[in-house]
Amino acid sequence: MKRIAVLTSGGDAQGMNAAVRAVVRCTLDKGLEAYAVYEGYQGMVDGGDRIRPIGWNDVGGVLQYGGTIIGSARCQAFRERPGRLQAARNLILAGIEGLVIIGGDGSLTGAHILQGEWTSLVAELLSAGEISPEQAAHHRSMSIVGLVGSIDNDMFGTDMTIGADTALHRIVDALDMIASTAASHQRSFVVEVMGRRCGYLALMSALASGADWVLIPEHPPEAGWEARMCQAMQRGRQEGRRDSIVVVAEGAQDREGRPISAGYVKQVLEEQLGEDTRVTVLGHVQRGGSPSAFDRNLSTLSGAAAVEEIITGNYHSEPCVIGIQGNKISSTPLSACIEKTQAVATAIAEKRFDQAIAMRGRSFVQAFKNVRTLMKAAPSPAAGEGKRLRIAVMNAGGPAPGMNPAVRALVRLAKDRGHQVLGISHGFKGLIGDDIHEMGWMDVAGWSERGGAELGANRTVPEGKDFYAIAQNLEKHQIEALVMIGGWAGYAAMIGMHQRRDTFGAFDIPMVCVPASINNNLPGAELCIGADTALNNIVGVVDKIKTSAVSSQRTFVVEVMGRYCGYLALMSALATGAERAYIHEEGVTLADLVADVAQLKEGFRRGKRLGLVIRNEMANEVYSTAFMNALFDEEGGDLFDVRQAILGHMQQGGNPSPFDRILATQMVSESIGYLEEQAIADEKVSACIGTIGGDLLFTPLEQLPRMYDERRGRPKSQWWMDLRAIGKVLAQPAPGNSHSETQPGA
Length: 746
Ligand code: ADP
Prior knowledge:
The protein is α/β, with parallel strands linked by helices.
């Protein structure tokens, strides 16, 4: 294998550039030649200059841009065999042996067909004298790997497609903005979002934004839905809701397969409710703008894995799709992914809607159930079966964006099941001091988009006679279950209570810790609520810092939060193309700094315009941010100057990201079920919840101290540490074999 080409095809998606960058740089890093096929399959059919080498620096400075720098197109010719014959000829003439195709299900179906026909295409080219026998022998097979670039999240083989998370950011931002104007005028809005065959964007944006009604292709509403929707809207108004928002997926339809347009929904609301209703079609805004931190990192890791697959994989007969499944990069046969994707489309076309929605997977179904509960104007009158509980909820530790949507979800999902919910203000301080009150359905209206913690959070950890006061308050309010949404201070307090349950009978109740910390430093959870928002906050600012620096030969030392946990530093370095992340887990030595200075100098000598290093706030006590700044500045001499940026509390602020809102709802929803089970169990097991390997699991509180490095305040084992190597490969200066067309950059 000598030459690997990358192409982007079909609808563009934010994050494609990060994937192209990773494919190109990983290919070059392996000592191979990297090529790009420009303008998707059209470039493959056209050949010539459209298939050409691409260098290390050609993919510099592209992480923050939406779209695709190598162009995309829709190509009719490639749908027919003569077009694919031409494409095969051009690939062989350019000496391409491996191909990474980034596109949607259409593009990957095309890839599958190309692969299937390859042998016969080569034979035909040979007999027509278009290629030599040597070329035919050398290109007996073509290694193809696909990455799913599609904002719709409509393809199997990955939990998330490249671009879907960013599109959700665009939609949820728009819905947040529309909510404020709608509320001011008591107006109704119908918002149409993309998704012809997949309701993912509509469903998740409705869940994240607290919309009032949602229509998706997989679940066409039963006849008479118009009246039910209007009743729900009216009820909401009566309960004091000022804004009404209906989210409609492009592909929404009724049970007869007739499209439901945003215009029709508007007409219904106006006619039946007499509401002033506006339609907003978000359109291509959803494809635009800078990719989210998640999309950048997903693309980067998938691109790197694709090159690895091509070099080491054994799929000459079977192309695969690289995706993400439960935080891990995965590889699935392309044919299986296409088959399953088409099966959903067929189920919808054949009106097997229950099957269609079930095929989307458990979390999609759960999200659909949850969103329908959360958007109600009041809880269901009929309570669920079994023991009804008085559940208390609190936030503890530092504030994390996503705490409010978590409390909102708890109040509504629990009340809808017939439980009562009590809010504890100011964390354990409030529990000790009896700052406890009943929470009503409408008390949490508008909390989905709100950052911070409305209930108030602090780091109080009870000790000594505090436990006595807590026990008294639990008894006084007849609290039968407790949910703490927060960081380690909250975990420690809950563990403390649990350990004393023999002394205080009031503590022998089911309790759940829900991880919420921007630092992502809690045991039993791969991702904490708040970390995604903080990461996006950091990435947004670093992007701006980078643009300020390119004009002036400058290196920035950016300090980010995380305490002793390097998650934010490492992931933001990966997402921004920083040359280095200094994290406490790895430590910082003088030798490291000397080597890094040398590498920076060498880079600037060779034309680099911007240097960027990200330092975790506690990476090293002695080699502080100020120290690094001074060292780099002194050593940089005339080559570059240095500025430091300590990002501070902006990292904790702002509206929670869509992912954090969705994660908060999912975790809380599972926690309620867990409390119900434990409440009737003989031996009540209190636990924390967290995603582990893609599943939401409960870990008993007793196990947590063993999993946690108390002194450093982080889990003993951290899954993301494995990602360090790829960051280092991608951020190094261009190796000697790199061809380049443009200016160097990050
Ligand atoms: P997406 O990849 O975003 O789903 P399209 O469905 O428009 O977008 O596909 C992009 C391109 O992929 C098409 O223009 C065509 O060149 C190629 N393609 C799509 N479907 C097929 C197919 N069934 N056979 C061959 N090529 C296809």
